[in-house]
Amino acid sequence: MGARRILLDQGAPVPLRKHLAPHAVSIAFEQGWEKLKNGELIQEAEAAGFSLLITTDQNLKYQQNLAGRRLAILVLMTTSWPRIEKAVEAVREAVDAAGAGAYSELPIP
Question: Sheet containing 72-76: which strands, arranged edge to edge?
Fold first, then answer.
């Protein structure tokens, strides 16, 4: 899969951005979406043409009806940047594997 537009939500560590080249990575805050709730954030991200949302919100699948979405969602199972940084290759693989509308959770050791 080629380069895609990725959105990091408020809980995802910003330094992850530099590890996801060649993808175009934006931060919810930069979009002015920091106050949006999950359902609104997903809608806005889809409308803006993002193909993947990276989040650390482990409750997302219980709070939102994800059926019929085009936006893929990748949940990192920690907010700890030092832990995520050590697993950045696994994050890249999960990003590359996430198809349209897919939901996946990535355990981070």
Answer: 24-27, 5-8, 52-55, 72-76, 103-106
C-alpha dist (Å) from residue 85 to 17, 67, 70, 90: 11, 31, 28, 10
d(CA 56, CA 86): 16
Helix (H) / strand (E) containing 82: helix 81-86
The amino acid sitting at 53 is L
CB of 34 closer than 8 Å to CB of 64: no
Could you give the 3-state DSSP secondary structure of residue 6? strand
Q: Compute how many other C-beta atoms are within 10 angstroms of the C-beta atom of residue 80.
A: 13
Contact assessment for residue 2 and residue 24, using Cβ atoms and an 8 Å cutoff: no
Residue 73: enclosing H or E segment and its boundaries? strand 72-76
pLDDT tens digits, 80-89: 999 999 999 9
Q: What is the pTM of this model?
A: 0.93
